[in-house]
Amino acid sequence: MQRGLSRIAILLALIGMGRTQVLTPADSQRVGGAVVHVVVRGQDADVEPSGLVQHKLQKGRYVHLRLRLQTGPNTFKVVYLTPKGERRTETRTVVVFPSDHNRWGGKLATPHPNQRLDRSCRGCHKYNLDNPETCKDCHKDLNEQWDREDVHPPFDDEDCGSCHEAPRITREVCEDCHDFEEAVDHPHAPFATNDCMMCHDPHASSRNNLLKRTVPQLCAQCHTLQGYQEGVHPVARHPQQSQDLTCADCHNPHGSPYRYFLIHEPETFCNTCHEDK
Prior knowledge:
This protein has helices at residues 2-18, 117-120, 122-125, 132-138, 153-156, 161-164, 171-174, 189-192, 226-229, and strands spanning 22-24, 29-32, 35-41, 44-48, 53-59, 62-68, 72-81, 87-97, 150-151, 186-187, 204-205, 255-256.
């Protein structure tokens, strides 16, 4: 019996050692645009070769790295310290296409090293983005998105060029229409690194605010719910299991003047729902 328990303990330890702490990107991921957002759960992280890193941000238990990659396959190493202080290395290969088009599920072929990608894309780029029929010819996977519950107005109006004339979709493109309130004191890392599409679908969604997943499932991509359920969160089991409230009812997903992205100042926060507490 004791021997059996020992074997189980060793197996669990090996599984824990092999668990990846690099949350994004996935290995062999294909992206449109040269800037890639790397998120690591750990005490610290860096990338080899280090010249790829444009911006680094440590937010609590997570490290956000913004890399600039070249068109084609890019292989790099993510070197990090786990939450327990163990040094590990994970290798990622990310394939960069010369436009954001492939991100939405296009069937472009994977580029080979030294391939002249600009020449291979001329078949589409000779057309005018003001003509949505040009986009529909290739991007048939987008047709069903017009029937979703929440449709982005430019997409609903078939005005592809309002966003895609830019060489890359960034927060600056979104700010042409969306007036964001800057939260310089405590910005949420995806917002601070201009990665709106980490949480939002730019075309359409079956959820409000064009979210890719429901809250709190969306938050749980980076912020695991385990700590919340075990009582680490100051309001464990509340309000998730009462009144249909979600993370966004207490936290601003873009950022806040207050710690933990709270929507009200901590001293009076509870009183917004609970009087005289």
